[in-house]
Write a structure and sequence with these properties.
Strand 1 and strand 2 form a beta hairpin. The chain is mainly alpha-helical. Strands 1-2-3 form a 3-stranded antiparallel sheet, with no helix packed on it. The protein folds into 2 domains: 84 residues, DNA polymerase, domain 1, CATH 1.10.150; 168 residues, hpI Integrase, Chain A, CATH 1.10.443.10. The longest helix has 18 residues.
């Protein structure tokens, strides 16, 4: 094993400190560092020597090499932090604009497919975790970081600490989800996997939570076992949760709160995939009298 420690340049160290001062999430910090590293590799010199023309050519290079719109925009965001905050040269990024993302609709399971997927999970821990993802509409990271004390059976709510946007919120806890959590807790506690006040879904090391990657792998395995051909992730269960609530006539503003969305516009995407609502609409052709 190579134990050599890579030397961190003063410029990179300053950027790391700038990100730490603002308490950016670790994954965000990694993404920003990756963006500056891409620019450095393109320039073949220190990124603080970049000019407006260099940055323009770099964006053209990303486009020409087939970089996806999401990755391209993420790279620009990281560079904007570097030039605006670390270097104090915001003018260099003034003409760099993000590209428009294609608007897509999420993959959604039917209620029968969601139930089959959860039932096909290989063990009771995964079944309980997927039940929370679908039954409460939580993100994968939010499911993984639940602790035993976050289950409030008196108020029938799940406390989500520091979800997306570093915000706390409460999610719904249905009787069925509570029953499955209790079943998992009894087994996990008896096996020494769930510690008092510990993670509700621990990983192989009980001191660490199940990772989002491990949970997604469990979803893929369950989808394959259930014979579901759709491209499914843990987030698909969250999409399905919101869509099925909308189809049951739950107010979209209530769904917005349950999902923890900041903007109603984000939640409104589910109106495009709520097929039960579409079936209730009487098309204009249906009202045209048949030709004699």
């Amino acid at each position: 094993m190579d134990t050599t420690t890579r030397k961190v340049s003063p410029l990179r160290q300053r950027m790391i400190e700038d990100m730490r001062m603002r308490k950016l999430e670790p994954r965000t910090q990694e993404g920003y560092i990756r963006a500056v590293r891409k620019l450095t590799e393109y320039l073949k010199r220190s990124p603080d020597t970049a000019t407006v023309e260099d940055l323009r050519n770099f964006q053209l290079h990303l486009v020409d090499t087939g970089t996806s719109p999401i990755t391209l925009n993420a790279t620009l965001t990281g560079l904007r932090f570097f030039f605006d905050i670390t270097l104090g040269r915001a003018e260099l990024m003034a003409r760099m604009q993000p590209v428009k993302l294609p608007r897509t609709v999420p993959v959604v399971l039917s209620m029968q497919e969601a139930a089959a997927l959860i039932a096909a999970a290989r063990n009771i821990k995964h079944q309980a975790a997927l039940s929370v993802a679908y039954g409460a509409g939580l993100r994968a990271s939010e499911v993984c970081r639940l602790k035993v004390g976050d289950v409030d059976s008196e108020r029938m709510a799940l406390r989500v600490e520091q979800g997306k946007g570093a915000k706390d919120r409460y999610a719904m806890l249905s009787p069925v989800v509570l029953q499955r959590l209790r079943a998992w807790w009894r087994i996990g506690h008896a096996q020494g996997k769930i510690l008092p006040g510990g993670w509700l879904f621990p990983g192989l090391d009980v001191m660490e939570p199940l990772s989002a990657r491990q949970l997604n792998r469990a979803v893929h395995d369950a989808a394959a076992a259930a014979g579901i051909a759709k491209r499914v992730t843990t987030h698909t269960l969250r999409h399905s949760f919101a869509t099925h609530l909308l189809e049951r006539k739950v107010d979209i503003r209530v769904i917005q709160v349950l999902l923890g969305h900041k903007k109603l516009e984000t939640t409104s995407i589910y109106a495009h995939v709520a097929t039960d609502l579409l079936r209730e609409v009487l098309g204009p052709l249906e009202q045209v009298p048949p030709s004699s």
